[in-house]
Amino acid sequence: MTPRIAKLNVIAYLRVSTQKQGQSGLGLEAQKEAIESFARRGATVVKTFTEIESGKHSDRPELGKALHLAKVTGATLCIAKLDRLSRNAAFLLTLRDSGVKFIAADMPDANELTVGILAVVAQAEREAISRRTKEALAAAKRRGVRLGNPNGADALRRAGKGNEAGLRAIVDKANAHAENLRPVIESLREEGVESLGSLAEALNERGMMTPRGGLWHKSSVRNLLARLEGQSKAA
Asked: Can you give the pLDDT of all 235 residues of the chain as single tens digits?
């Protein structure tokens, strides 16, 4: 039987990284369910704030509103997972010391010491990912790989739809773009970023574009991985 928690009021805070994720609800439903499941043990969700912002930035107006309401009402800020706030240790530690009580639905028994340790670990992981990504890109550049967006859509318009040579050019550019991103994908996987959704979020946060210059989604990451696998087999 799931243990009940002491009755408390909570302010729910949800975050997704992109505007399209916010519009589609991608990621939000899982966060809502985690908080609602936590609340069913005896808590009351007073208000929910939703932020569409990159985790790299600490300037988040919706989080500010949530913190203010929690402070003036004595409620507890509730998040689905600790990394929904940030991977920045200084930001998390500042939040810890702000006077606002907060709790993560996935670790309701965590105390200030636990959160402080997790914040330092999260920051170390973030810095490691950033360092390895930069090193991988630098290594690719030394090998002569051209980094950047090949503008596949523009090439398709120039070549003309249905033109075999033009379509071949698009495929070649898409393959080249995928190869440019191979070291980034490998670096992310080394850090434990494996799922399609997590890879898409990580690529978007790093400013990596799709071959058409857009944002990454699960489907486009799936296509990228399939292309990389196909190129590896053909090598």
From this structure: 455 555 789 999 988 765 444 444 447 888 899 999 999 988 999 999 998 765 555 567 888 889 899 998 999 999 887 765 656 666 677 777 778 888 888 887 776 677 777 777 767 776 777 777 777 777 777 776 655 544 544 544 554 544 666 667 777 778 888 888 888 888 888 777 888 888 888 887 777 778 777 788 899 899 999 888 887 776 6
Do residues 65 and 49 make contact, with C-beta atoms less than 8 angstroms apart? yes
CATH of 8-110, one of 1.20.1070.10, 3.40.309.10, 3.40.50.1390, 3.30.2090.10: 3.40.50.1390
For 45, how many CA atoms within 13 A lie in the half-sphere containing its CB? 20
Rounded to whole angstroms, the Cα distance separating 154 from 144 reads 24
Q: How many Cα neighbours within 13 Å face the side chain of 23?
A: 3
Domain boundaries, the chain: 8-110, 125-234
Which residues have a Cβ under 8 Å from the Cβ of 55 and sit 6 or more positions away?
A: 15, 17, 83, 84, 85, 86, 87, 88, 205
DSSP string over 8-56: EEEEEEEEESSHHHHHHTTTHHHHHHHHHHHHTTTEEEEEEEEEE--TT
**Residue 47 φ/ψ, nearest 5 degrees:** -160, 150
Query: 51 and 13 in contact (C-beta within 8 Å)?
Result: yes
* Under 8 Å between Cβ of 206 and 144: no
Q: Report which residue type is found at 94.
A: T
Asked if 63 and 13 touch (Cβ cutoff 8 Å), the reply is yes
